[in-house]
Amino acid sequence: MTDETPSTYGTQRKAAARNRVAIIEAAHELFAENPLATLSEVAKRAGVGAGTLYRHFPTREDLVLGAYQHDIDRLVTTADEVLARHSSARAAFVEWFETLSAYIRLKHGLGDALHSEAAQKMVRESWGPAGEAVGRLVDACVAEGTIAAGHDPADVIMLMSFLWRVPNNEEGVTQGRRLIDTVFSGLKESPVS
């Protein structure tokens, strides 16, 4: 029997949840700055001890995957917010995909951690929610008249994947915007069956 009361347990769980979020956010920031950032740097930025970090993320791969899942979850939930913020569905579509491409470019810099079986499973599991978010963006563009009806969100994701292949600099942004215009020209046509 322990002398912990239910309220003590609840307080500890809330603190653990806050620590987990702080670690993930610190990892996101540090990995964006330097994909080779150490776990001790992450712990320091998060304001937690190494033991706390390792309780939540026993390996670097676990932390990379946790940060990836957090980013994808956050992005998927922002589709409606991005649509609400823009007067143009097309502008919301472009912003959402540019944000996605920034996440993916960051993750490409993290090496082998995203090539493990656990990572591939996570990517497969995130495909459904990402497809639903893209579906909402596509539907808004169809309603606006900037995209023809009938385009499959999975096809649109594959089509837009060029964004995470352009250089991560001013020239890449310019090239990406040119290619987005080309994509929208093609999406104005009904899909070929």
From TrEMBL:
PANTHER family: HTH-TYPE TRANSCRIPTIONAL REGULATOR BETI, HTH-TYPE TRANSCRIPTIONAL REGULATOR RUTR. Residues 17-75 form the HTH tetR-type domain. It comes from Lentzea sokolovensis. This is TetR/AcrR family transcriptional regulator. Residues 38-57 bind DNA. Keywords: DNA-binding, Transcription, Transcription regulation.
